[in-house]
Amino acid sequence: MRLLRQATAVLAGVLLSASVLAADRSYGYQEEVNNPGFYAMTGDLLIARPLLLGVTAIGTAAFVVSLPFTALAGNTREAGQELVVRPGRETFVRCLGCTKSGHGRKQQDGRQ
What's the burial of 70, exposed, middle or buried (CB within 10 Å: 0-12/13-18/19+)? Predict the structure, then answer.
């Protein structure tokens, strides 16, 4: 039990320090936002992407459950966009370490 508490504390410390370093490194600097660093990419890969994958799965399940109601109300497209497409885009399309979907280095340079 003691080892589990120590491992959890170390993991929490590493995750918190990575996010703080990533925020400190990219805050206010447009050049570094376009070219995310090691900590931003690592935090994104280890923390954000698994969480976003879970959000996408939960959103998909919620969309399927709410489908009869949204179909009757006529807003199926909006529900699908917000519950499935948007989280999926943030999970799978956003570049590693970027903060916004579709803002990769290729698009910043004008090459697509």
Answer: middle
pTM for this structure?
A: 0.60
Q: Tell me: the pLDDT tens digits for 8-27?
A: 776 666 666 655 555 555 55
Answer whether 93's CB lies under 8 Å from 44's CB. Answer: no
Name the phi and psi angles at 28, rounded to 5: 80, 0
Residues contacting residue 55 through CB under 8 Å, at least 6 positions apart: 87, 91
Classify burial at 21, counting beta carbons within 10 Å of its beta carbon; exposed 0-12, middle 13-18, buried 19 or more.
middle
Which residues span the domain enclosing 66? 2-109
Alpha carbons 84 and 21: distance in angstroms, whole number? 31
Query: In total, how many domains does the chain have?
Result: 1
Tokens of 70: 């949204």
